[in-house]
């Protein structure tokens, strides 16, 4: 059983349980849940965020931090509020500097998994549209000729009629890059509140003869952004040895995939590649 870090959200807002997926003397890699900010919100400083909770726990020498003799913790990169998955943290300043340098020059190989609306005609494709913040709404990104160079490579893992599972490999690291590039390619991520087409998955759409409770509205199988930061491969920031870290699919996406594979007609034989641990 993998260790879990328990963090207080403060203000009587309960706790977050954060699985640890890799750890050594210099690096701590965690599996961030969907619905948690990595860093403070620029507009609402009181919103719970992962780094504030981690730093407070280290300063207060909470048991999980004390047993590791932690006096320093910092994130080397970010993932979106809605996105679940792998986040790498440094336990000391020299490690942070090296990791930040690696992520800055895009040397880590990052792989995400996304459930998207639609079915690409090709098994592999890419998008290199330049991206910048939307002038009218800086919280959004858009493709534009004067944007920054961006590149994402995609590979179809499995097909379920009108839904596909796709591996996403961002070569650059722009804000919302995968989400915008998939939208531009015509395959928005399911349940994406910013760039989606409103599509989700309902069990009633998959299971013949499904009957829900008459007094309850059916909940979608993908109630949140169906995007997961799955793998990171990079040289260890201290030893230089190859390092590959993986955050397993969260329960909600794992269940959605299981039901898609069980009930959805139209899967393409021979094209499925295993992604579950």
Summary keywords:
11-stranded mixed beta sheet; Pseudouridine synthase; 277 residues; two-stranded antiparallel sheet; disordered C terminus; 13 strands; 2 domains; alpha+beta; globular; 29% strand
Overall description:
This protein has 277 residues and is an alpha+beta fold. It folds into two domains: 105 residues, Pseudouridine synthase, CATH 3.30.2350.10; 164 residues, Pseudouridine synthase (2-Layer Sandwich). It is built from six helices and 13 strands. Strands 1, 2, 3, 4, 5, 6, 7, 10, 11, 12 and 13 form an eleven-stranded mixed sheet that branches. Strands 8-9 form a two-stranded antiparallel ribbon. A hairpin with a 3-residue loop joins β2 and β3. The protein is globular. The relative contact order is 0.15.
Q: Rg to the nearest angstrom?
A: 20 Å
Per CATH, the architecture of the largest domain is 2-Layer Sandwich
Highest-level CATH class of the largest domain: Alpha Beta
Following the backbone from N to C, one meets helices and strands in this order, namely EEEHHEEHEEEEEEHHEEH
How would you classify the helix and strand content by structural class? alpha+beta
CATH topology annotation of the largest domain:
Pseudouridine synthase
* Low-confidence segments: 266-277
Number of helices: 6
What best-fitting shape do the alpha-carbon axes yield? globular
Task: Say which CATH homologous superfamily of the largest domain is assigned.
Answer: Pseudouridine synthase
Largest sheet report? 11 strands, mixed
The count of DSSP E runs of length 2 or more, i.e. the number of strands, is 13
Intertermini distance: 14 Å
The fraction of residues assigned to DSSP E strands is 25-35%
Q: Approximately how much helix is present in the residues?
A: 10-25%
The total number of structural domains is 2
Name the average pLDDT: 90
